[in-house]
Write a structure and sequence with these properties.
By secondary structure, the chain is mostly helical. The protein has one domain (about 1-125). The protein has helices spanning about 1-40, 45-70, 80-95, 100-120, 125. The longest helix has about 40 residues, at about 1-40.
């Protein structure tokens, strides 16, 4: 009887481990895709591409954590979530601004605004219907 439970627990832990590894692979795949996309679209150098990886990873991790926290809540304070995501995006842009040229930064902001306007059902575009992102960074739609 104990052996049955032991085997059951073992298989449960194996399934849980495989699930976590799959999520990690999905996250890494998303991160690599975004960095590769930015590298191609903005004509980034190898050093720029290497520098943005940790910035994008930090942003995606924090954003995911925020959205997972509010996903389980029955009533969500959208104003608070919007403000938190906006501050997170501003932090990301400040860091990217140190890596990108002014033209690259402006191009990336324009591309993100375009994608947000083309995806009205996305989490980011439904949180705020406010003004668009500017090159200055503080006044953007997210």
């Amino acid at each position: 009887m104990i052996l049955k439970y032991g085997i059951g627990i073992f298989f449960f832990l194996m399934v849980l481990t495989v699930s976590v590894l799959a999520q990690d692979e999905d996250f890494q795949s998303s991160l690599n895709y975004k960095v590769d996309k930015m590298k191609k679209e903005l004509s980034l150098t190898e050093s720029q591409a290497a520098a943005i990886g940790p910035i994008i990873k930090e942003y995606l991790t924090k954003r995911s954590t925020i959205l997972q926290e509010v996903a389980g809540e029955g009533v969500v304070d959208h104003v608070s979530v919007k403000a938190t995501l906006k501050a997170l995006k501003e932090e990301e842009y400040q860091k990217l601004n140190k890596v990108f040229s002014a033209d690259q930064m402006k191009e990336w902001i324009n591309r993100e605004n375009l994608m947000a306007s083309l995806n009205p059902d996305g989490v980011e575009s439904t949180i705020d219907d406010g003004p668009s992102l500017s090159a200055d960074g503080a006044n953007f739609k997210f």
